[in-house]
Structures are given as C-alpha cells and as structure tokens.
Amino acid sequence: MFSFLPQSYKTKAQEEYNLRLWASVCLMLGCVFLISAALVFPAYLSAKSAETSVAAAYRAAAEASASSVNKGADTAITKAKEYMAAFETLVPLDADAGALSIVGVKPKGVSITSISLGDTDDGVGVSIGGVASTRAELLAFSDALETVSDFSAVNLPVNYLANDTNIDYTISLSIKNQNQ
To answer: How far are the Cα atoms of 30, 106, 161, 172 from residue 142, in angstroms, in the given order?
Structure first.
C-alpha cells in the first residue's frame, strides 16, 4: 500500500502493529488456557472420585469372587462325598475289574477314547466314548456290554447308528445297585 509517511513513522507504525498483534495473540492464548483449565479441572476431580469408587467396587468384586471360589470348592467336595456315598451302596465294583470287563467285551474294530463317571437318572453311571469302524461292531459292543453283570442298563442312542463307518459314539451305562 502506498503511504506518504516518512520512513521512520512507517517503521514505528509497523513495530506498534506487531506489538499489538503479539499482545492480542498472547491474550487469546491466555484466555484459551484459563478456559480449558476451568473445563478440565472439574473433569479431573470427577475422574479421580470415579477412580476411587471403581477401585472400591473392584476390591469388593475380588472379595466376592474369592468367597464364591471357596463356595465352589465346598460344593465340589460335597459332590465328591455324595459320589463316595453312592459307591458304598453299589455292588462292589473294582475299578480295574470294571474297566477290564468293558475292555474285555470290546470288539476289534471299536476303540475307546474316554471313560467317565457321572450322575444318571438311576444313580451313578459310566459313560464310554470312542470310535467304531462299522455299525455292526458298535452294535456288537453294545450287546456285549449288556451281558456284563455289573451294569443294569446300556444306552446307545439311535443317532449313532446313522453312519455306516467311522462312528463317533457315546454309550451310557448304569451301575447296578445292591437292591437290583
């Protein structure tokens, strides 16, 4: 822009303009800092109190879970005692002899991958899982288990007979009570 002012006045005017510009920028930055501090400080205080309450809730949950773990262990021990009491009423079945009686009647094409003990509707039972190479061998195994005198019932669900070969199966056996 064209100006008829002497050079010294122009320089002083430019210096004053720069000084006012920097003073305005500093004033605006100061206001932004004060406003942000006013907005952040209450949020910091509420976050601090929320952190305290969450820490208290975490401690309470940890104590509750510790006591529930103990309750779970107590329940497991009680359940184990019930199993032991149920076994006392059964015909004496030696575990090795029971396993040998199951394995002894197993046909050649049948493999056993798991044997587990658990509750059934009739009391305590054994569950046998594995793979049979053919349907005929699986049926022969089921029939052979029915001849074992330690078991009162043999349950082979019909859906395991749908395949002809390589049949994954689970057979449920009820252990015979003394009263039977």
So the answer is: 88, 9, 12, 10
- Cβ atoms < 10 Å from Cβ of 45: 10
Token pair 């009391």 is found at: 123
Q: Cα separation of 48 and 53, whole Å? A: 9
Q: What is the pTM of this model?
A: 0.46
pLDDT in tens, 17-72: 999 999 999 999 999 999 988 888 887 777 778 788 888 888 887 777 666 555 66
126 and 115 Cβ atoms separated by less than 8 Å: yes
Distance CA 158, CA 140 (A): 14
